[in-house]
Amino acid sequence: MEDKFTLNNASCCFLAKGCCRNSAHMLPVTDWLCDLPENVAETDLVEVQFKNTRKGYYHNVQHLPLEKGSTIVVASNPGTDLGEVVLTGRLVKLQMQKNHIDTTRYEVRDVLRFATEEDIERAEQAHAKEQETMIKARRLAKSLGLEMKIGDVEYQGDGSKAIFYYIADGRVDFRQLIKVYAETFRIRVEMKQIGARQEAGRIGGTGPCGRELCCTTWMTNFSSVGTGAARLQNISPNPQKLAGMCAKLKCCLNFEVPVYEEAVRRMPQRNIPLETKEGTYYLFTTDPLKGTATYSTDQRMPVNLQVLTPEQAKDIIEMNRRGEKPDTLGGKSTTATDVPEIGYQNVVGQDDLTRFDNKPPPQGENGKTPPRRDNREPRNNRGDNRPRLDGRDDKGFHPDGEQRRRPDNRMRNNTPRTNDRPNTNNPAK
Questions:
Q1: Residue 162 burial by CB count (10 A; 0-12/13-18/19+): exposed, middle or buried?
Q2: How far is residue 403's CA from residue 396's CA, in Å, rounded to a whole number?
Q3: What is the pTM of this model?
Q4: What is d(CA 17, CA 10) in angstroms, rounded to the nearest whole number?
Q5: CA–CA separation, 358 vs 267, rounded Å?
Q6: Is 294 left (phi over 0), alpha (psi -120 to 50) or beta?
Q7: Strands 161-167, 292-296: parallel, antiparallel or unpaired by DSSP?
Q8: Burial state string for 280-304 with b = 16 or more CB within 10 A and e = fewer than 16
Q9: pLDDT by residue (tens digit) across 169-217?
Q10: E strand or H helix at 81
Q11: Yes or no: domain 124-199 corresponds to CATH 3.40.50
């Protein structure tokens, strides 16, 4: 029989290190110090998560026995709000440092009490109005002619305040919009501008990898993503493949950049050729992950390709600096048509939008490709050697040396040719 030891109502488990993760959270937090008795007593700060990605930090001035997953009521401006405790103890201070929260400027409010059934019911009623409010808010913003988009609406736990998250390319004067919202919805209005990545994190979704979006699950800070990361990893610069759900470059392009940067440092420099007795070899392409460098005898095209390791290339470079030339490179010969072996199955590209571009030719009833219909007559369709009636031979030349002008039914410069002679071989019926 397997023995399980639990502490604080199964909020922590000794079978695994730290606290068990709650999959219901969009931004799960693991408290690795929850099993230490002096952890909670070190500070009264707690991290509270509200709807989606919004979090806040509060003082437990009443010293309530708060645990991870406790539903509490906290003070807000105005009224109260309802949230869930996700972190307690020593790690809260480290979390605030990670999020660059200045305690001298950040107003830390207090935890009031544990949430009751009435508090939870009131919060559920307020959250039920968010979808309808968002639709009306978009219509009102459009009627005022504002260049903005209402991405999400979040009601406070007591229903006295609502946060309108909007997206705009530039600066928007929404003073009149706030007055209209306050009169229409009878609540206090707060406007917060977010970016496309934050909007995707609040909406959620599934990425091409088959997992939930990183911005929805664990990412809180978004770093800039450039096309240089794609070029460094030899990824095709296809906007359809590089863009994520937010129509911006995928955040995962930055995940493996340090690995590629370290691998590229081990590669030989491109501007240093290799001198041998056979000739001069130039660096054609490199594969940082495999650790191979392909050299060619021509700078612009793959000719006499030789595959070397970075160590072999650096040894030859050192020999050239000493004035020595090896007989051959000593690498593996290859051709431009060689296809590298792939040890995995690329299941991501199976759902590519361009997979239907190269369609196979249509099949006939007997499984064969139907003959191509062409209005042009074959050149050599004359089965006999009879002389032509117009006095020209089969090559289109007159006996006196004048060349035959062939009909051209193609459109050139979107203008039909008017000086073509009629085709006498195919008269109109």
A1: buried
A2: 6
A3: 0.58
A4: 14
A5: 36
A6: beta
A7: unpaired
A8: ebbbbebebeeebbbbbbeeeebee
A9: 888 888 899 999 999 999 999 999 888 888 888 788 888 888 888 888 8
A10: strand 80-88
A11: no
